[in-house]
Specification:
Spore Coat Polysaccharide Biosynthesis Protein SpsA, Chain A, globular, 7-stranded mixed β-sheet, 2 domains
Length: about 425
């Protein structure tokens, strides 16, 4: 059986259902798990020294439970209503008619995580830390498991990952596209220590976990101990995992956790060593064929954002899967009719881009102070498809500045930096 873990509160269950559906729908029924195992070792790009070679499990060395076809989806949550539980039961039944699967719910109390710092994804609740408790939900028969964020969409047969042999590595993961100038501060024997992460800093939204070694190395306990010592941390569980696992990771192609913001622009390793730790060639390979999309601009908030290598709005992929999602599709499609705020955000960003192109930089300050955004909606039709995602990023930055009462000058500098990076790095990602 193939164990896949997600964290979701009551509101996020319907989004998790779309991800689960995409996994089931992309399972090739003409193949068995054995077909993915027993392969020769594979190196993603020829003559490439930056990506590890992939080794595959020998099917006959697995026990019967590990050889068995079928998914078990584990949903970690703080609360799920009886009505939603009932929906999940019907949802499971529908998907079982396609491919064997179970959906198990695991409820945790925030009290378990009172020693963990609130930051990043954990600024309002502890849900993102729940993934650290996999020891308590999986039994000893499990060899590998996968953790996925709910804002993802699968485009391939995920059994391919379960066939990977992690050997002495604890996780296989994908490099984070953000800046690598990150740090964590903690106390060790009354001494303050600052640890700076390096170019191998990974995104914890996708983790292929060698569960046998994860337990043996007591990763859950180590993250808990570190959490109690931390007095500066920005990315919550992601920072904890990056520190504890920093020397025990297998690096996978960016395609397995393709962060959609890189459709706007990607700064690759051969352009800036502190950013995405893939070369432009490696990135372009993933750009052409992403296996898992990781949505930043959520498709349930944005009907439109970036376009992919085939010129298609990537949020259309998600809504097409909604149509195929049993039980939850009606609710989601009804909500779709009310999604409009993104238009204001994109229009606001378009005005910022327009002022930039007209060299009227300080007119951007008026966008921050003036909150009458309706008047900008008339410009929506002028936004080019390839720039819509950029306009969303700019508009979101302005909305955040208003909410946080940021000074105009610092916001203008941030917007100028975003546009500069877009103009310098976005066109390269489209040279495929």
């Amino acid at each position: 059986m193939f164990h896949i873990i997600m964290s979701a509160d009551e509101n996020y269950i319907k989004y998790s259902a779309v991800l689960i559906t995409s996994i089931i729908k992309n399972t090739d029924l003409s193949k068995k798990f054995k077909d993915f195992c027993d392969k020769e070792d594979f190196i993603p790009l020829k003559n490439n020294n930056t990506l590890d070679s992939y080794s595959y499990l020998k099917f006959d060395t697995l026990n019967k439970e590990q050889q068995k076809e079928g998914y078990i989806f584990h949903i970690l949550s703080n609360f799920i209503s009886p009505q939603t539980e009932e929906k999940l039961q019907f949802f499971e039944k529908e998907l079982n008619s396609i491919y064997p699967c179970k959906i198990l719910i695991h409820i945790f109390e925030d009290e378990f995580f009172k020693d963990f710092p609130k930051s990043g994804a954990a600024h309002s609740n502890y849900l993102s830390y729940y993934r650290l408790k996999i020891n308590s939900i999986l039994d000893n028969n499990v060899k590998n498991c996968i953790y996925l964020d709910s804002d993802m969409l699968c485009f391939f047969d995920i059994r391919e990952l379960f066939a990977l042999d992690l050997k002495d590595k604890i996780i296989a993961c994908v490099n984070d596209p953000g800046s690598k100038k990150r740090k964590i501060k903690f106390k060790e024997k009354n001494k303050k220590i600052t640890f700076y992460f390096d170019q191998n800093y990974f995104n914890a939204g996708f983790l292929l976990i060698n569960f046998e070694k994860y337990k043996k190395e007591k990763i859950e306990e180590k993250t808990h101990e570190l959490a109690k010592k931390c007095f500066y941390i920005k990315a919550a569980d992601q920072d904890l995992l990056n520190f504890v696992l920093r020397n025990q990771i297998l690096k996978l192609d960016f395609a397995y956790n393709f962060s959609i913001i890189t459709y706007a622009y990607a700064i690759c390793r051969d352009e800036n060593s502190n950013r995405l730790n893939f070369t432009r060639e490696e990135f372009n390979q993933s750009f052409k064929n992403p296996k898992i999309l990781h949505y930043g601009e959520k498709p349930w908030k944005y009907l439109k954002s970036y376009i992919d290598a085939n010129g298609k709005n990537i949020n259309d992929h998600w809504w097409e899967m909604v149509n195929k999602t049993p039980i939850f599709n009606k609710e989601l499609l009804e909500e779709k009719n009310n999604i409009k705020e993104y238009l204001y955000i994109a229009a606001l960003g378009f005005m910022a881009l327009k002022f930039y192109n007209d060299f009227k930089f300080f007119k951007i300050a008026s966008l921050i102070k003036n909150k009458n955004d309706k008047k900008y909606l008339e410009y929506i039709k002028e936004i080019k498809d390839e720039e819509f995602g950029l306009c969303c990023i700019l508009g979101e930055s302005i909305f955040y500045a208003r909410k946080s009462n940021k000074g105009s000058f610092s916001v203008i500098l941030k917007l100028l930096k975003i546009i500069f990076h877009y103009k310098k790095y976005s066109h390269k990602s489209r040279i495929i």
